[in-house]
Amino acid sequence: MPKKMPSPCIGVCKFRREGHCIGCSMTKTQKKMYKTLKKPAFQRAFVDFLIHQQAGMGRFTHWAPAYLRKCRKKGAVPPAALE
User: Fold this and answer.
1) What would the 3-class secondary structure string for the chain be?
2) pLDDT tens-digit profile of 52-75?
3) What's the Cα-to-Cα distance from 33 to each of 62, 65, 83, rounded to whole Å?
C-alpha cells in the first residue's frame, strides 16, 4: 500500500500573487482541499496538479528541492515529475 503523500506546504505560508502562497503556490482553499484527500492516489494527483500550476505561474523553483527533502524525511515516494 503506498504511503500517504506529505502536504505540499513547505512552511512559508505567505499569500500573495492573487491569493497564492509564495512557498507552494496553493491558495487557502486548495490547502483545505488537500487535507480532505485521504487516498494516496488522490493526494498524488493533487501534487501533480500543483506542479503544473507552479510551472504556469513561474518562480517556484525553490519548492521542488524542499518538497523532495520532506518526502524523503517522511519516507514517501516523491512524484516522478520531481526526480
Assistant:
1) CCCCCCCCCCCCCCEECCCEECCCCCCHHHHHHHHHCCCHHHHHHHHHHHHHHHHHHCCCCCHHHHHHHHHHHHCCCCCHHHC
2) 999 999 999 999 999 999 999 999
3) 23, 23, 25
Cell 484527500 found at: 37
Write down the pTM of the prediction.
0.90
Report the Cα 82 to chain-centroid distance in Å.
Answer: 11
d(CA 55, CA 14): 19
Distance of CA 5 to the CA centre of its chain: 9
How does 1-37 read in b/e, with b if 16+ C-beta sit within 10 Å?
Answer: eeeebbbbbbeeeeeeeeebbebbbbeeebbeebeeb
- Residues 76 and 38: their CA atoms lie apart, in Å, by 15
